[in-house]
Amino acid sequence: MSIEKSSKAARGSVQCENSSFNLLKANDFVAENIRKHMQEQNILLINVTSSAGSGKTTLLHETAKRISGQVNMKVLVGDLETERDADRIKEAGVEALQIVTGGICHLEAQMVWQAMEQLDLSGVELLFVENVGNLVCPASFDLGEDYRVTLMATTEGDDKPKKYPRMFLTSDMMLVSKSDLLPYLPFSVEAVVKDAREVNPSLEVIQVSGLTGEGLEDWCEWLLEKVRNKKAMSETTAV
C-alpha cells in the first residue's frame, strides 16, 4: 500500500526563490551605480579577467610602466589572500589596492564599490580591476566596467573559448598572453582566435608578451584611445 505524500510545507519552512538569481540582481544594481559614478568622474573602468597564472599582474605592471606618464591610472586587485599582486603593481609607480576576497572565487560589484571608497579617484582617468583568476564565476558578475578584457595564455591550451564560452562572450578584448612561449608549446593562435570569434564575432584580439614586449604598444594604444573616446563622449554630453 502506497502512502500519498503530503503537499503541505513543513512547519517553519519557506519557499525560496533562486538565490543565485537574486544575488546577480543585487550585483547588477551596484554595478549600475558604479557605472554612473565612473561616468560622472569621467573614468574608464577596465575589468581584467583570466585563469590563474595567465599574466594579469605582469600585464598591468608593464602597462603602468608604459603609460602611467600619459594617463592618471590606478588599480584594484582581487585575490583570495595576500597583497602580493598589488605590491608588484606599486613597484611600477602606480597606486594599487588589494581586495582580499577571503576565499570567494570572483569579485562582486559591492567589493569594488567598497574598495573605490578607499581610493582618491579625483583626476583618475583609467581604473583597472584585476579580477580573481578564474574563467567561470567572474563571467557572471558585472563590475560596472566599460570594457572586459580576458587573457588567454599560451600555457593553457587553445581550447578554452569553447569550454568557457560565457567569459569570451562577455569580453570585448582577448589578449593572447605569453606569446614568447609559442615556439615551445602545442598552441595554435589561429585556432584559439577562431573558437573565440565563433563565440563572440566582435571580439578584438592582440597577441602579447610581458617578457619581450610583443603587442604591448598596440595594447597601450587601445587603452589610450578608449580613454580619449570616453573623455570626448563626456564632453559632448556635457554640452
Architecture overview:
The protein is of the alpha/beta class. The protein has one domain (22-234): P-loop containing nucleotide triphosphate hydrolases (Rossmann fold, 3-Layer(aba) Sandwich). 39% of the residues lie in helices and 16% in strands. The chain has 8 helices and 7 strands. The chain has helices at 19-41, 56-67, 84-90, 109-116, 160-163, 165-169, 189-199, 216-238; strands at 44-49, 73-79, 96-100, 126-130, 147-153, 173-177, 204-207. The chain has a 7-stranded parallel sheet with strand order 3-2-4-1-5-6-7, sandwiched between helices. α3 links the parallel β2 and β3 (96-100). α2 packs parallel to α3. The longest helix is centred in the N-terminal third of the chain and has 23 residues, at 19-41. It is globular.
Summarize the model shown.
The protein is α/β, with parallel strands linked by helices. It is built from eight helices and seven strands.
* Main sheet properties: 7 strands, parallel
Q: Which homologous superfamily in CATH is the superfamily? A: P-loop containing nucleotide triphosphate hydrolases
Number of strands: 7
Mean of the pLDDT scores? 89
Shape-level CATH architecture: 3-Layer(aba) Sandwich
The ordered string of helix (H) and strand (E) elements is HEHEHEHEEHHEHEH
* Overall body shape: globular
- The share of residues in extended strands comes to 15-25%
Helix content: 25-40%
Overall radius of gyration:
20 Å
